[in-house]
TrEMBL record:
The gene is pcaB. It is an enzyme of class 5 (isomerase). This is 3-carboxy-cis,cis-muconate cycloisomerase. Its EC number is 5.5.1.2. InterPro entries: AdenyloSucc_lyase_C (IPR019468), Fumarate_lyase_fam (IPR000362), Fumarate_lyase_N (IPR022761), L-Aspartase-like (IPR008948). It comes from Halomonas elongata (strain ATCC 33173 / DSM 2581 / NBRC 15536 / NCIMB 2198 / 1H9). Residues 360-444 form the Adenylosuccinate lyase C-terminal domain. The keyword Repeat does not apply. Keywords: Isomerase, Lyase. GO terms for molecular function: 3-carboxy-cis,cis-muconate cycloisomerase activity; lyase activity. Belongs to the class-II fumarase/aspartase family. The keyword Isomerase applies. SUPFAM superfamilies: L-aspartase-like (SSF48557). CDD domains: pCLME.
Length: 450
């Protein structure tokens, strides 16, 4: 598979560099060495075993390709890894290698070890997005633009409140991930069937000490077929992906040539077409959405593997590994793009103002109807507001002018009750922004209270 051409570009390159086969092998080794140290500390194995084991294996050249070949016969990477480690040890240490553990303990714990730095990076990227969004929403707290529902013009909002919603989504995702990262992801240690067979109550003590040594959390019980930790992690990734994709979707729609309300940050070669020199494609948005769509698919795989049989999954457990790690790397890549996008987003307020007038003012038909209803009744008011908007669009005149002319020709009696100032106020989008400013203020307070 040409990973470097069709998969890796959507991922974080620094994340990829820290998640190679060699890194997974090192994570498995970290588990095994910490296990021996913990057992030695509890007097379960002779003194100095763990030090000698570490001295022998930390410098050992494990061959990831040979371990990979062994997966086909054992079903997971731990089995050939454990064999390779035992073969590299002197005979007197072999009995203490992988003592009391099972392959799932090794693989699950190694994945948690690999993912902890990724969670730290995701937190940093989401915090960077928040820092970029705050001044953007402040600067445009009163910049009116078209609010759109079902892809059609609806009523005015401000660009600031749109940014506030992007920021809230991303920050909620950050806080959700933080609840998993702050205590540490859980270690896995339960032995063959999850009850520390042959170790009695010492098994739980070793599990707790192992977690502390690895910088992971100690679960209440081993979680061999209780996949809630994986479910929580995967759905948290997916929630963050949804927030990033919302940002990218909105920005990409607003960059359309006919709208031109925002543009991605400029850069050498960014957004160029292979055949159309005039184009400036929203490539960052495409990269974000492409990564997030893959995450959604990976999440489905993990959700369908949540219920696992008896004391060890048969295929369900195996199906989790790649989607979980890929999701983390894809999300990291998407958030790298999102941070750059928010930090350099070009905002074209004049285009937003222009688009408010595209319908001849029809976007303001609701407040006009409200103004006219006490005098004409609901149906007549709606009809007059709509007709004036259509005339304004066709004749390319201000909505207030069209209204004033229609009222003079059909309802002259209103001239003393509804003046020009009333019409201009009712047709000014900047005066019909609802709670936009208050929402920006409220969002800012919540975002800053971190």
């Amino acid at each position: 598979m040409p990973d470097a051409l069709i998969q890796h570009p959507f991922m974080s390159q620094s994340g990829l560099a820290a998640s190679r086969d060699e890194d997974f092998v090192r994570a498995m080794l970290a588990f095994e060495l910490a296990l021996a140290e913990t057992q030695e500390a509890e007097g379960a194995i002779p003194a100095d075993v763990s030090r000698r084991m570490r001295a022998c294996l930390e410098s050992h050249d494990f061959d990831p390709s040979a371990i990979a070949e062994g997966v086909a016969s054992g079903g997971n990477a731990a089995i050939p890894f454990v064999k390779a480690g035992r073969a590299a040890l002197p005979d007197d240490l072999k009995p203490y290698w992988h003592l009391g553990a099972t392959s799932q303990d090794v693989v699950d714990s190694a994945l948690m070890i690999l993912l902890m730095p990724r969670l730290e990076r995701l937190d940093a990227l989401l915090a960077r997005c928040r820092r970029a969004a705050l001044p953007l929403m402040e600067a445009h707290a009163r910049t009116p633009m078209v609010g759109r529902t079902l892809m059609q013009q609806a009523l005015p909002i401000t660009f600031g409140v749109k940014v506030a919603h992007w920021a809230l989504g991303l920050e909620q995702a950050r806080r959700r991930l933080a609840t998993l990262a702050e205590p540490g992801l859980p270690v896995q240690f339960g032995g063959a069937v999850g009850v520390h067979s042959g170790w009695e109550t010492l098994g739980l003590t070793v599990m707790d000490g192992l977690a502390e040594r690895l910088g992971l959390s100690a679960p209440v019980l081993p979680w061999h077929t209780d996949r809630q930790p994986i479910h929580a992690l995967s759905t948290a990734f997916d929630g963050a992906a949804g927030a990033a994709e919302k940002l990218a979707l909105d920005v990409s729609l607003m960059t359309q040539t006919e709208l031109g309300e925002v543009a991605e940050p400029a850069g050498e070669g960014m957004g160029e077409s292979s055949s159309m020199p005039h184009k400036r494609n929203p490539v960052r948005c495409a990269m974000i959405r492409g990564a997030c769509r893959q995450i959604h698919g990976h999440t489905t795989v993990i959700l369908n593997a949540t219920a696992q049989p008896l004391e060890r999954g048969l295929g369900e457990w195996h199906a989790e590994w790649a989607p979980l790690l890929d999701s983390a790397l894809l999300l990291e890549g998407a958030l790298e793009q999102a941070a750059v996008l928010l930090e350099g987003l070009e905002v074209h307020g004049e285009a937003m103002q222009r688009n408010l007038t595209v319908t001849g003012g029809a976007i303001m038909a609701e407040p006009v109807t409200r103004l006219l209803t006490p005098h004409l009744g609901t149906e007549q008011a709606k009809a007059l507001a709509a007709e004036a908007a259509e005339q304004a669009r066709q004749q390319r005149i201000p909505y207030a002018d069209a209204l004033e002319a229609l009222m003079a020709s059909r309802h002259g009696e209103l001239s003393g009750e509804i003046g020009r100032a009333d019409l201009e106020a009712a047709t000014d989008p900047a005066l019909y922004l609802g709670s936009s400013q208050a929402q920006v203020d409220r969002a800012r307070a919540w975002l800053e209270d971190r």
